[in-house]
Every structure is written in structure tokens, then in C-alpha cells.
Amino acid sequence: MNAAVLIAVGAGVAVVLWVLAKLGRALASIVETLAALAFLGFAFWTVLRSVGWLARQIVTRWRTCLTLVALAAWWRWWGWLSLAVVVVTLALIAVVWHQLDVVGFDRWCGRWLRAWWLRWAVYGRKLPDWLHACGLTVRDEAIPVDVTVNLVSRRRKRQAITQARQTSGVAVPALVRVRSGASWDEVRVRLVPGQKPEDFDDAARALATARKVSRVQVREIAPDVVSLDFMRRDLLITPVKSESLPGLEPARVNLCAVYAGTTEYGTPWRLPLTGAGAHILVAGASGAGKNSVMWSPLVSAASAIRSGLVRVSGVDPKGMELAYGRGIFARYAVSGKDTLELLENLRDELEHRKRMFAGNTRDVPLSQEFPLELLEFDEIGALTRYTDRKTREAIVEHVAVLNTQGRALGVSVRGYVQEPTKDTVPVRELFTRRVCLRVTSKTHVGMVLGDGAYERGAWANRIPETMPGTGYVWGEGIREPLRVRAGWVSDDTVKALEHYVTNGGTHHLDHCEERRAA
Ligand SMILES: Nc1ncnc2c1ncn2[C@@H]1O[C@H](COP(=O)(O)OP(=O)(O)OP(=O)(O)O)[C@@H](O)[C@H]1O
């Protein structure tokens, strides 16, 4: 009996072992097949991704790819020695060129090399992280987040996180183009759905901090492309020269765009003295350099003033600044009473021109008989706020009429004020173009340049006291706040200008030079 049971159990165990062996073999071949399939799939996927990456590089970085192909071809056909000799020779030429003519080198070669390098080393690598940190990415909540972080090393972990961001439903604006100028980098990015250019305006300061620069300008290039301009170097840090006085022969002056100074891009800053945008309000704290915004265009227009094509009137409540070049001003007033008289005089001229030209022309043609009447109103707040009520109201009314009707009739008003509140300058809105120099408070920026100016980069309250004449312009014809610095006009130049426009052209500077020489 026992033997029979033992035989039965033994047979059962044998069967079970046989079945297990069969199963094991079957499972092993299944696992083998799966592993082979997984390996093949992984290899195929890697090849596909590599081809995709290569195609992307060829399209987006075609210059680099072409250079690499050219270098490889050279190496292949002519050997590494000739390649090394050519590269070293080119590098030496670049160094010598840079030493001899830094401007020419930068224009023709340096800026391309710098843009290429910055794209690879800075913007291509870091911009996605900056944009993400500044809240300029869009998360699509509908796409499941699948984050895999590899903790083997910091570098690997960083790569894993970046990869996770791309695959986890966070859309990052794409880098479109990098250009580099002498002082600015222009980095264009394509917005992703859900973003608007204003989002970048709001993040401008954060972006500046991320790039470790003092200023970022956001410009709208297309509905879905913005340019982030990073200022690497401040071109306005040193005083800007005003134009020199012309010779005795009458020189042509474009009164619609006279030189006033330099923009932050290193281009000339031009202001209209007539036509659209000629009524200018310049606001700035004491010592901000308002007078250079006044004198610099006058120096540029000297020839037109001298020939009688421009007639300048001056209101000088302090009795100091304009008095220094008193002879330049055909009409001049210091007190409230004198100012009223001067403004009435200009109103009469305005009415006279209306009678003369109404129905014949839409714009008065400027001539010696009907010159451009240019009113320089220094410290406009002193007379529109701090005089007696009757005088104040009359002055405000006259300025408002000149501002609203003057453009077509050849009358332009340029006002200067320390405190740009509505109480001080009730006609503030009637000035078609405004310049905000250094002001003491952030709220003043909006008062001068309009709502949103500060947010869009007009940081006039942060202009240092060591940079008088520097400010921002925005409004009519200027899409983004533009930082400018007026040309510096010395006392000698004011005197020379006065002499030039009053005595038939004798150049006072000669006299100054003689004096200096003595
Ligand atoms: N564009 C400029 N570049 C360099 N220095 C300047 C410039 N403009 C003005 N300055 C210097 O800054 C100082 C103040 O200039 P300015 O008198 O024009 O200031 P302001 O705004 O008119 O002040 P206030 O309202 O008190 O008269 C002056 O000493 C002048 O030399």
C-alpha cells in the first residue's frame, strides 16, 4: 500500500516538474522575444529621434551645419595641417583688424560671430529656463505630466528636468533669431498660444535680472513674435555732443526732424520743431537736464533761426536760463504779465495767419514772412499754478489754443516742467509728444508718458543723477519707450548760438577760442 502511494506521489512530482520545465522554456522564449522586440523598438526610436534632431539642427542651425560640413570636407581632402594654418591665419587677421578698426570689425564680422556664439552659449541654452522662471511658459493642463528625474548626477538631473518640461505639456516660446549689436542683443521669440506680447512687457524687469543686465526692451515684431532686446552696454553713459554750429552759408535744416541727441541704440534722436509731434512737454526733476533738450535742437536749427525761417519766443519765469541766450528770442517774458502779453501776441499772429490762409491751404508754408513761431516755455508749472488765478487761467487758455490750433498755422509750443501733475500743467494732454527725464517718483512716469509706460520699460525714476539729459520718449509714432540722451550744450555754445543768430553770422566760438588762448 505504502509503495503504491509512494509511486503515485513520485509520478505526480515528475509530471509537475515536466510541466514546469515546459512552461519555463515557453516563458523564457516569450521573454526573449519581448526583449528582442523592446531592443529593436528602442533602437528604432533612437534612430528616429536622432534623424529628427539632425533635421531640426540642419533647418534651425544651417550656418553652423554648413561650417562643420565645410571644415570636415577640407580636412578630408586637404588634411588637418592646411586647415589649422588657415584657421590660425584668419584668427590673427581678426585680432589685428579688431585692434586697428574696432567699429569696422564689429560691423562686418564681430557682431555675426558674437550672435552665433551667444545663440549657442547663452540664449539657446538658458532662455527656456529664464522664460519658465519668469512665468512666460504656458502649461496645458489637459496633457498628463510624466516627470522622470534621474538622480545619478546634477547634470543628468537637470537634463531630465528640461526633458520633462518639453514632454510634460509646458509650451515654451521658441527662439527664432539672435542678433547682436555693439551694445544690444536682439532675441526674437515666437509666442505660444495663450500668450500675448504684454505678458513679456510685465516680465521685462525679471528677464533683465535673469540675464544680469540693467535693461530689457520688449518690441512687438509680429502678432506672435516679440523681440527681447537685452542691453549689454549703456551707450548713453557718457555725455552726448550737440551738433556744431554751421558755417555762414545758409544750411538746409529739416525742421521736421532736427538733431536733439542720441538714442540708446546709438542712432540720432531727432525731434520735430514743426508738424505732427512738435508740441513737446519735457518733464524732469531739478537738475534732470531739461535745458539740454531745449538748447540742443535750437543749435541744430541755428541756420533756420538766423535766416528768419524760425522765430523763437521764450518764457523764462526763473529769469536765468533763457536770459543767457536772450538775443536768440524775438519775444521774451519773465513775469506773469509779460507772459500774457507774449501769448496774446502769438494768438494775434495765429489769427492773422488764419485770415490769410483759410480756404487757400491746409498748412501754412513757412517763409521769412510767415516763419515757424517756436515758443520755449521754461518752468511752465510756475506760471500755470503759482500765479494769481486770473493770470493763470488766461495763460492756460492761450497755451491750450496755441497747442490745439498751432500745428497747421506754423506755431509750436515746447514746455518744460519739474512736477508733471495735472494741477501744475492742466494742458498736459495737449502736448502731442512728451519726454520724461529723471523724475522722483514712478507715478510721474505715467503722468508724463501715459498709462503703462513704466511697465513697458520707461524707468525714468531709476535714471541716475549722474546722467542729466537722459530720459524716455513714447507716444505718437514711437511704439515702445525709447531711452534717449540730449546733446550737451555748454554755456560757450549758447553764447556762440546767440552771436550766430543775431549778428549776421560772426562765429562767437572764435572769440571764445581767442579768449581761451589768451
Ligand atoms: N545732456 C546733458 N549732458 C550732460 N550734462 C548735462 C546735460 N544736460 C544738462 N546737463 C548738466 O546737468 C545740470 C542740470 O542741467 P539743467 O539746468 O538743464 O537741469 P534742469 O532740469 O533744467 O534743472 P532745473 O529745473 O533745476 O533748472 C547742469 O549742470 C548741466 O551742466
UniProtKB/TrEMBL annotation:
TM stretches of this protein: 36-56, 77-97
Domain of life of the organism encoding this protein: Bacteria
Entry GO MF terms: ATP binding; DNA binding
Pfam families to which the protein is assigned, alphabetical: FtsK_SpoIIIE (PF01580)
SUPFAM superfamilies, sorted: P-loop containing nucleoside triphosphate hydrolases (SSF52540)
Keywords: ATP-binding, Cell cycle, Cell division, Membrane, Nucleotide-binding, Transmembrane, Transmembrane helix
GO biological process: cell division
Domain FtsK residue range list: 266-446
Record-listed ATP binding positions: G284, A285, S286, G287, A288, G289, K290, N291
Xref: Gene3D superfamilies: P-loop containing nucleotide triphosphate hydrolases (3.40.50.300)
Protein name in the entry: Cell division protein FtsK
